[in-house]
DNA sequence: GCTTGTCCTGACGTCGGCGTCAACGTCTAA
DNA sequence: TTAGACGTTGACGCCGACGTCAGGACAAGC
C-alpha cells in the first residue's frame, strides 16, 4: 500500500502521514525502488489509534506510547503500562481543566447576573438596546 | 504616565501594552514631544479589565466590548449590552467545552478500566512493570 | 564625553499540526 | 509519446499573544 491509499483509507491527508513519519510515529514499512513509501495493513491500525486519541484531545506526542505498543505486536494500543499511564495523566489533566472551566463559568455567570441587575446604561453600545438614550 | 510605569503598575510587559495598542485596544492617550507614549490613570483600569477577562479564558478580541465600554465612560466594562452578550456567549462556549471534556474523560476512564481488567502483557514497555517477562 | 536608563519601530521566533506550494521524479493508460 | 496521476523533498504560511533582539533616539547624571 502506498501513501495515497493509506491516506484515503485512514481518512487523513498524505501530508499528515508524512508528518507522523517525521515525528517518528509512523515510519513507512519500506521504500519501493522508486523511493515511494510502502505500508503494511497494520499501518491503518496505527493511524486509527492516533486519530482516536487525538479526538480525545491528546497531543501527538501523547499518542506515542500507544503506537509503540501496537507496533510491538500487542493486541491494543493500551495494552502497555506506558500507555495506561498516559490515560491516567490525561484523565487528571482533564479533571484539572474542567475544574478551572467550572470556576471560570461560575464566575462569569455571577458577573453576568450582577451586571444585569444594574440599571441599563444610556446609549451604551449594542444596536439592539431597547433603552432610550438619556439626557438631551 | 509612560509605558514603563504603566507596565509595572499593571503587571504586564511593555511589549504587551504595545501589542494591545497595535490591536486597537489600548491607544496611548497622547504622545510626548519625543514620541513617547503617555497614558492617563484610566489606562490602568483598561489593562486590568483585559487581564481579568484573559484569566477567564477570553481571547483578546473578546475583551474589546468591555474595554470600549469602559472607554466610553461607563462605570464597568460589563455595563454595556455588547459586553454582556460576550459573557453569555462565553458561558455557552464553556458549557459546550465542558461537555466535550466530560465525554472524553468518561470515555478515557472506561478505556482505562477495560485495559486494566486485561491480563498484563509480557514485557510491554514501561520500566516500572512488575510482571515477569514471558516466554523464554 | 560617557554611561545608564528609558523610549521608539520593525521584524523574527515560539508552539502544534498540519495546509499549501514549488520543483522535480516516476509510472501508467491512451 | 505524452498527458496526467501519483510520488518525492524542502520550505513557507497559519493562528494567538506575546518574547526577544536589532538598531537607533533622547535625557540625566558623572
Explain this structure.
Chain A is mostly helical. Chain A has one domain: Orthogonal Bundle (Multidrug-efflux Transporter Regulator, Chain: A, Domain 2). Helix content of chain A is 59%, strand content 3%. The first copy, chain A, contains 5 helices and 2 strands, in the order H-H-E-E-H-H-H. Chain A has a two-stranded antiparallel ribbon with strand order 1-2. In chain A, strand 1 (30-31) and strand 2 form a beta hairpin. In chain A, helix 3 packs antiparallel against helix 4. The first copy, chain A, is elongated and about 75 Å long. The model of chain A is unreliable at 124-136 (pLDDT under 50).
Oligomer: homodimer
Q: How much of the sequence of chain A is in beta strands?
A: under 5%
Distance between the termini of chain A: 77 Å
The low-confidence parts of chain A are: 124-136
Evaluate the radius of gyration of chain A. Answer: 25 Å
Biggest interface, chains and residues, is: A-B, 44 and 44 residues
CATH topology of chain A: Multidrug-efflux Transporter Regulator, Chain: A, Domain 2
**Total tally of structural domains of chain A:** 1
Secondary-structure element string of chain A: HHEEHHH
- Output mean pLDDT of chain A: 89
| Largest sheet geometry of chain A | 2 strands, antiparallel
The CATH class name of chain A reads Mainly Alpha
Note the overall shape of chain A.
Answer: elongated
Q: How is the largest sheet of chain A built, in terms of strand order?
A: 1-2
What are the key terms here?
3% strand, DNA-binding, 5 helices, 136 residues, mainly alpha, disordered C terminus, homodimer, Multidrug-efflux Transporter Regulator, Chain: A, Domain 2
